[in-house]
Amino acid sequence: MEKIRVAIAGPRGRMGSEAVKMLMKDETLQFVCGVDPKYNGEDVGDILGLGALSAPFVPDVRQALETYRPDVLVDFTTPHVVKQNMVTAIEAGVRPVVGTTGFTPEDIEELDRLCRTQGIGAIIAPNFAIGAVLMMKFAQEAAKYMPHVEIIEQHHDQKLDAPSGTAVKTAEMIQAARQELRQGHPEEKETIEGARGGYYNGFRIHSVRLPGLVAHQEVIFGAVGQTLTIRHDSINRESFMPGVNLAIKKVMEHTGLIYGLENIMV
Ligand code: NAP
């Protein structure tokens, strides 16, 4: 069986470097190059301290795709560049598997259309941890019966976007199941701006940023005389890698954009 050729955009980052190690452990996958404006031409494995991998850094996505002909582009970069990276890949017939967050619903629709025009697949997962996907599913189920809810997400202090992609996805799933309701006292006033968090369709999302945290989320439901808390913690970035591995394999069999790991879990 031919190996799936994989390029990684952002291979020096916290997630990207974990993805390089994951590829090294899977004999059905071949890491061909890293896309990064720095370290042009140097071996990614050497720079990461993993030993030579015969996969160089290439400064630009288009050049990486033309020269190293990957089947899949894994992206763990930043919200500023990820959409253009995806467009470049899809137009070149290369299937993106994306963990970088910060997409709008319009972006998702546009990228899906582009995938279908090109006849290839793409996967964006705001959270590649299986436990986080279960947390979202359980929260959606609970929202049917307990519509009073708040989301508290906690991440390391270097995260660029707030709320997290996971919190937004959880909110969308809750919204799809929950009866319409604007929570809280109608005359509630904030004496410190932002104290009540971000407003999403009648409920609130709170973002905590501190060094020492990785990726954590609580969904708290309230009803008369009781609360229910559903919590997920990623305690290291290895937690995301079985999901990335699965997405690389699934994206080869699909046409159109899949948004969310739950759509490929059997
Ligand atoms: P990070 O450590 O800052 O890594 C990002 C990497 O991308 C850095 O090495 C950065 O290089 C590089 N980069 C910046 N601009 C680039 C460009 N134009 N082309 C190629 N590489 C570029 O961030 P992280 O913690 O790995 O997170 C990356 C993304 O994944 C974030 O959006 C985060 O929210 C998301 N994330 C997703 C999941 C999930 O399960 N889906 C889990 C965790 C994180 P410099 O440092 O030189 O700028």
TrEMBL record:
One of its GO terms (cellular component) is cytosol. Its main location: cytoplasm. It is found in: Cytoplasm. Its EC number is 1.17.1.8. It catalyses: (S)-2,3,4,5-tetrahydrodipicolinate + NAD(+) + H2O = (2S,4S)-4-hydroxy-2,3,4,5-tetrahydrodipicolinate + NADH + H(+); (S)-2,3,4,5-tetrahydrodipicolinate + NADP(+) + H2O = (2S,4S)-4-hydroxy-2,3,4,5-tetrahydrodipicolinate + NADPH + H(+). Gene3D superfamilies: Dihydrodipicolinate Reductase, domain 2, NAD(P)-binding Rossmann-like Domain. Transmembrane segments: none annotated. The active site is at 155 (proton donor/acceptor), 159 (proton donor). Pfam families: DapB_C, DapB_N. The keyword Acetylation does not apply. CDD domains: DHDPR_N (cd02274). It comes from the Bacteria. Homotetramer. Belongs to the DapB family. This is 4-hydroxy-tetrahydrodipicolinate reductase. It comes from Aneurinibacillus aneurinilyticus ATCC 12856. The lineage of its organism: Bacteria, Bacillati, Bacillota, Bacilli, Bacillales. The gene is dapB.
